[in-house]
Amino acid sequence: MTGTITGADGRTRFQTTVARVTGHQLFWPVVALVVLLLACGIVSPGFLDVTVRDGHLFGQPVDILRQSATPLLLAIGMCLVIATGGIDLSVGAVMAISLAVSLTYIAESGTGSNLSTALTGLFLGLVVALAIGVFNGFLVTVLGIQPFIATLILMIAGRGIAMLVTKGQITTVTSPPFKSIGSGFVLGIPTPVIIAGGVFVLVALLVRRTALGMLLESIGINREASRLAGVKSRNITWFVYILCGLLAGLAGIVYGAPTMAADSNNIGLMKELDAIMVVVLGGTKLDGGKFSLAGTIVGALILTTLERAVVIFHLPTQVTPLFKALVLIVVCVAGSERLRGKLKIRRTSRPVVAAEVAA
Amino acid sequence: MTSTQTPSSTRGLAPTPPPAKTPSGLGATARRWGHRVADRRYLPVAGTLLTLVLILVIGQMRYSTDTRSFVNMRLFSNLFVDNSYLLVLAVGMTFVILTGGIDLSVGAVVALVGLVVAKLLIAGVALPLVLAAGVLTGALFGLLIGVLVHYFQIQPFIASLAAMFLARGLCNVVSVQSLSIDDKGFTDLASWRLKFGEGRDIWYVNLSMIVALVVVLVAVYLLHYTRFGRTVYGLGAGDGGQAVGLMGLRAARTKVWVYVISGTCAGIAGILFAFYTRSGFNLTGIGMELDAIASVVIGGAMLTGGSGFVLGTVAGVMVYGLIQVLIAREGLDSWWTKVFIGAVLLAFVLLQRALTSTRAGRRRSNREESPGRSRRFRAAAAPPPTADA
C-alpha cells in the first residue's frame, strides 16, 4: 500500500475514482447496457458489425438505434415532465391519435404520393398532439389537478378518440414520402435516428444552455418556493406538458410511418410505461427535481437492446416483459438509497479496521 | 406536545362516529347531523351517488317499455355478475390509493392467476389447492411490490410497473394460448347460482357476487373499524408515515400490507375472472388496472391518499358498469365506453379539485399555526372533524 497517493479522507485516489464512477447515477444503467450488448455479441458473433450497403448503414446496432428513436422521443418529453414532479400517462394514446389524424387526412385526400400531402398530414398530426399537450398542461397547471390523474383521463379516453378518428377501422394508406419518415435514410443514417437525435440536441441545448433546466429542477424540488423566488412555475410546467404531447405525437408518426397503418387499438399500447421505465433507467427519480437527459438515451438503448436480445437468444418474444421487469428491479434496487447506504458502510468500515491494525 | 400534534395527525383519518357527547337538546342533535351531511369528506361520494341515480333515471326514461322497467333486479344482478372481478380489484386498489400509492400490476396478475388456475387444473391438481394457489400468487406479487416500495424505497408506480411486467412475462411463460377450463368442479362452482323471481323478471345471485360482497364487507370492516384501517388513512397524509408513527401505529408494516391486500384481491379477482370466462389467456386484463383506478377515483377517493371510502368505490364500479350498459343499449361501438369513462373521470376530478381548493383556501388562514407542514401534506389532508366544531 506504500506509495499510493491518499486523499483527505484517507482513501487512495483509485478508490475515490472508483467510488465516484460507481456512485454516478448512470453507472448501473450503463453496466446493464454493456452487459446486454456483450451477451448478444457472444451469442451471435456478427451482432456488433455495421456494414454500408447502397450508401446506407446496416447492421444490428443500426436497427437498435432506429428502434430506440420512438422510446427516446417519448422519454425526452417524459423526462422533463417528471423533472417538474409530474407524469404524463397519455403519451401512448397521443401516439395513436396523432397517427390516426395524419393517416386519415392522407387517406381522404387521395393524393398520398404528393410530398405536400404527406407534410400536411404530418403537420396536422403534430397540431393535434400539441393541442392535447395544451389540454393536459391546462388541467395540471391552471386547475391544479394531480398530473397522474389529469393525464390518466386521456390515457383512457384517448384510444377511444383515436378509434373515432379512424371510425373503428385500421386506416391504411400508400404514401412513399410519409413512409420515409419511419423507414428512410438521410446521409446513410436512418431518418428516425436523425429525428430523435435532432430533437435530443435541441431539447438538451434548450434546457442545459439556458436556465430552463435549472428552473425545471427547482419546480420539481419545491414548486411553491420556486414560485416565491420568481420562477414562473405555471407557465414552465405548462410548456413542458405541451412539449411532451408534441414529442409523443412525433413519436407516434415515426413509429407508425413504416407500416402506414393506423391501428388505434395497438399503436403506442403500453408505450407510456416503456417511456417512464426509460426515464427511470436513465437515473431520473420519479419524485421530480434532478433529471438526466443523457440518461434517457442510455435507458432507450437498454430497452431496445433488451427487446433485441430476446430475439437473439431465440426466446419467444412474448417473454420480453419478464426481462424488462428483471432489469427494472435490478437497476432500481441497485440504485436505491438503502442498498447504497449498506454498501457504503461496508466500504468505509474496512479502511478503519486496516488503520487500527496498522497502528 | 400531544395535544398540539393530535389535530393535524388525525386529519385525513377515517370518519368515525362522533364522540359520544351528551347532546344538549334536539337543536344540537339536528345541527350535528346537518354538519355530518354537509361534511366535505362525503361530497365526492355524494357526487358519485348522484351520478349513479342520474344514469339510472336516464336509463329508466330511455329504455323502459310498457311491459318492462329498465331499473329492475335483473339489471343489478347482471351488473354484479359482469363486474364482480372489477369490484374486488377496485376494493384492493382503494387500500393502496388511500395510502397515496398505486398498484399497476393488478391487470397482469389477473391474467397470470387465470393461467395458473387453468394450467394446474389441466395438470389434475385438486380444486381447493388450485384456488389457494391462485390467491397466493396474487398475494406474493403484492408482497413483492410492498417490499420494493417499503424496503428499497422505490416509488409505488415503478415497483408495481416492474411487477406488472413480471406478471405479464410469466403469463407468456405459462402459455401463449388460451387455456380453456373443463374441470368439473370448477365449472360447477362457476355456474352455481340462486334463482329469484319468475319469467322475464328472473334474476340470479352467483358465487362471484357473494365473493365480491364478502370482500367488500371485510374491507369496510378493516378500513373503518380497526387500528389497521386508521393507519392506512394516516399513511395517506403524505408525510412518509411520520404522523402515524408518532401516534404509535405501525406505519412500515401497514405499508407492506396494503400491497399484499391489493395483490390478494387481484388473486381473488383472477379466479372470479376465470369463473366468468372459464379460461385463462395471457392477453386478458390489459388496461384492467386503469378500470380499477378509474372506478376508485369515480368513487370519490383522492389519488393523493387519505380520503375515500370502500362503499364509494362500490358506487364507482356501478357507475362504470352502468355506462357500459347504456353504451350497449344505445347501440354505440364499444370504444365510446372509453370516451365516456374519460369524460366522467374528468368531471369527478374537477369536482374533487373544486372541493380541495376551497379547503386550501380555508387552511391558508391557519398557515401561521403550522408553517412547517409540507405542500403535499396540505394537499392531501382532509378537513378536521367538523362533527362538534
From TrEMBL, chain A:
Keyword Cell division set for record: no
Membrane topology: Multi-pass membrane protein
Intracellular or extracellular location(s): Cell membrane
Keywords: Cell membrane, Membrane, Transmembrane, Transmembrane helix
Main subcellular localisation: membrane
Transmembrane segment boundaries: 26-52, 73-106, 118-140, 147-165, 185-207, 236-255, 291-315
GO MF term (any one): transmembrane transporter activity
One GO cellular component, as annotated: plasma membrane
Pfam families per UniProt: BPD_transp_2
PANTHER family: ABC TRANSPORTER PERMEASE PROTEIN YPHD-RELATED-RELATED, GALACTOFURANOSE TRANSPORTER PERMEASE PROTEIN YTFT
Full protein name: Monosaccharide ABC transporter membrane protein (CUT2 family)
Originating species: Luteimicrobium subarcticum
TrEMBL record, chain B:
Family annotation (InterPro entries): ABC_transp_permease (IPR001851)
Pfam family, one: BPD_transp_2
Superkingdom, natural source: Bacteria
Residue ranges crossing the lipid bilayer per the database entry: 42-63, 75-98, 104-122, 129-152, 158-181, 202-223, 256-276, 296-323, 335-355
Any GO MF annotation of the entry: transmembrane transporter activity
Membrane topology: Multi-pass membrane protein
Any one GO CC term of the record: plasma membrane
Composition skew (Polar residues), residue ranges: 1-11
Subcellular location: Cell membrane
Segments of this protein annotated with the region Disordered: 1-29, 361-389
Alphabetical UniProt keywords: Cell membrane, Membrane, Transmembrane, Transmembrane helix
Protein's name according to its UniProt entry: Monosaccharide ABC transporter membrane protein (CUT2 family)
Organism whose genome encodes this protein: Luteimicrobium subarcticum
Source species taxonomy: Bacteria, Bacillati, Actinomycetota, Actinomycetes, Micrococcales
